[in-house]
Amino acid sequence: MPEDPISQEMARILNEKLQRVIDKQTEHTIALANHTASLDRLEKGQEELREMMRQLLSRGEPTDG
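Above: the chain sequence. Below: its structure as tokens.
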């Protein structure tokens, strides 16, 4: 830490600003991870719906016989 009071105050202010940036980046990273998880769940749900539709459509197809 710098010796003179002005340099100490400047260093303190910079550290506070840096901490705010880090905190904001952390919030954004968490939000992005949550959105990614939500998209993964949606994608899985879509695949399940597609499979159900395939099964339903295959039941409605005429059979040879």
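The helical segments are 5-60.
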